[in-house]
Each structure stands twice: as structure tokens, then as C-alpha cells.
Amino acid sequence: MEELIAKILSKGADISTRNALKGILDLLGIEKNLVDQLYVATVDTACRSGWEKTPAKKRAVFLPQCIRNSKLCKAELTEKGYVCKNCGNCPVPEITEYAKNLGYEHVYVVPGGSMVYRILKENKDVRAALGVACLSELCEAIEKLYPLGFKVQAVQLLKAGCVDTAVDVEEVKEKLKAGLK
Predict the structure, then answer these.
(1) Taking the domain 49-177, which CATH number applies?
(2) CA–CA separation, 181 vs 177, rounded Å?
(3) Where do the structural domains in the chain lie, given as residue ranges?
(4) I need a surface site. Which of 10, 45, 65, 152 has the fewest CB within 10 A?
(5) What is the pLDDT along the chain (181 residues), one digit of tens a residue?
């Protein structure tokens, strides 16, 4: 897949939408059934350098509410997402603490994409965003943020669904620390 991403990017292809990528795959004679995964990976690669050059205080992290433990979570929903109570029953406290130790000021646990866009609209100093989500949510967010100039990075959930999902915490930490000293 890395070779294909490099080929797409070297041609200066329009990767602002999944439909644009589908057209490129047609021209290259490549099966389109993996277009969502390829789209996320291509934009992730295209934005990596910009992400790494962006200081932590100008980056935002969006964690999905679905990684919380639905039965044991004590978090409260506010206008800026869930406020974690650090109960330790899910990966949210570990990821949040790691991010804050790196200098992140914008870490959110959100119930969906509409809250992401509202938060970013309110925080004009944020120029890069890391999203943790299922593949369809990642694609939707990237299609809205990438054309606006946001340096986006993505981590796909290991287990999808709308409740009690799973994420590779180490992969999230790797993305968080990328480019920071």
C-alpha cells in the first residue's frame, strides 16, 4: 500500500475527497474496494510532515466516546464532549494524560463528528487534528478538514461499533509524539 500511496502523491493527485481518489484508482486500473482505507492512509501520509511541524498546543486530539466502558464510565457530557473522571475503566485517561504531558491543550472525547467541527470552529489556533474513529467517521472528518488546510492524522479503531470499541493505545501515542521533542 505504501508504494501505491507514494505513486498517488508523486502524481500530485487530488486527494481532497474519496470520489477523487476513486477516479485516480480507475485511471490506474486498481480495484476500488479498499478506497476508504487508501484514502485515510494517503491523506495521513500527505499531512504527516505538516503534523510533525505543528506544536502540540496547536494540535487537537479527538477520541470517540465509544472507547469508553459503557457500563462503568462516570464521564459527564458537556458542550465540549465528555469530561473524563479518570475511573480507569477505558483507555481515555491514559491517552489524555500522555497527550497533556506532551503539551497538548486540546484533547476531547466526542460523541460524533458535528462536535469536532464546532470545537475546531471555536479554536482558531488549532491547525492540526488527530482523530481516533471507525473508518467511515475518519473518512467523513478528513473530507471536511483536509480541504480547509488542517494537517490531519488518523488512528482507526481496532474494533468498530458505537459502544465499547477498542483502539491501539500505542499507535495513538506514536501519532501524538510525532515531531515533538
Answers:
(1) 3.40.50
(2) 8
(3) 49-177
(4) 10
(5) 888 888 888 888 888 888 888 888 787 777 766 789 999 999 999 999 999 999 999 999 999 999 999 999 999 999 999 999 999 999 999 999 999 999 999 999 999 888 999 999 999 999 999 999 999 999 999 999 999 999 999 999 998 888 999 999 999 999 999 999 8
